[in-house]
Amino acid sequence: MxxxxxxxxxxxxxxxxxPAEPRDSCRLLVLSRSDGSIEHRRFTxxxxxxxxxxxxxxxxxxxxxxxxxxxxxxxxxxxxxxxxRREDLDALGGTWECLVHPGKRLRVGAMIEYRAGGLHAxxxxxVVLTGEIVDFVEGSRGGRLVRFCPQGERTLDEAxxxxxxxxxxxxxxxxxxxxxxYQTVYAMxxxxxxxxxxxxxxxxxxLMESLKAAGVKWAEVELEVGIDTFRLVEEDxxxxxxxHTERYHVGQDVVDAVRExxxxxxxxxxxxxxxxxxxxxxxxxSKDAMVARENATTNLFLMPGSKFHVxxxxxxxxxVPRSTLMMLVxxxxxxxxxxxxxxxxxxxxxRMLSFGDAMLIM
Length: 362
Hints:
single chain; 362 residues; alpha+beta; QueA-like; Thrombin, subunit H; 9-stranded mixed beta sheet; 7-stranded antiparallel beta sheet; 6 helices; 18 strands
């Protein structure tokens, strides 16, 4: 198995630059794992493939306004992407693990000033937040530990919200719409993620209610989506790639719902790859069962050859070539089925990646 096995030609014009409106009007490619057959539908039709008693499990995480654009005292522009609050290093919560750009110019001791409005803030605007580079993050290109200090009367969280923006993926280049469109309608209030669980973006309150009325059950996990969502696998041998750890939570209520669903002969349908990784990370080999996980961490890397213990079907988006997510969906179906489905989607001009269309693998 080579990383090249999960590569494909993605036309730039098919990378969706804005979400479908309404959310559930996007297209839906349905892939059958049993025979590789493909159907082309709309996401509003997803209920036709679900049965009463099936359990949808979604990731309820909310995206933090984690993209901060500031300037060094010299006036040079720099960008900071918040990844993880390091309370183990700073009990006050002011130290974050970040990605910075340009990394070569942001060495230990460098100071950054952030003004409300970011790059477009006038020079007369007051500094709302400062950041000091305090260390490098080992094994992470562009990774830094940054100690933030709010200015004035704001708390740290208030300052981050004053200067930060939702960190859209780098391939979405000119979106000026409502940033809430990059949040799921069922997202929790607390903000923890650097990226959205994008398979869930297609659900509307109306669609959720219609599915529940039809007897489809709903449960939620939480996984704080990290920057690995955007990373390509650079190693030729994907087994040498390491995924950064991400915090996740699978409650006892989810464990019970999964067990009851399986015992009744119904299916567990994961909404997105982050839900898949949460559910499969909660599997305890020694107990041959799921167990509740609270504030746990996972770096589970699912690739062809991996075994799925919990998930029976998956709703997902179309993913970046050479990514761990391509490998995950290829593990759930087969590489041949996934590559054939992607070629079909491209031929039929599906909209790809985070704001794009959806796939149901069953």
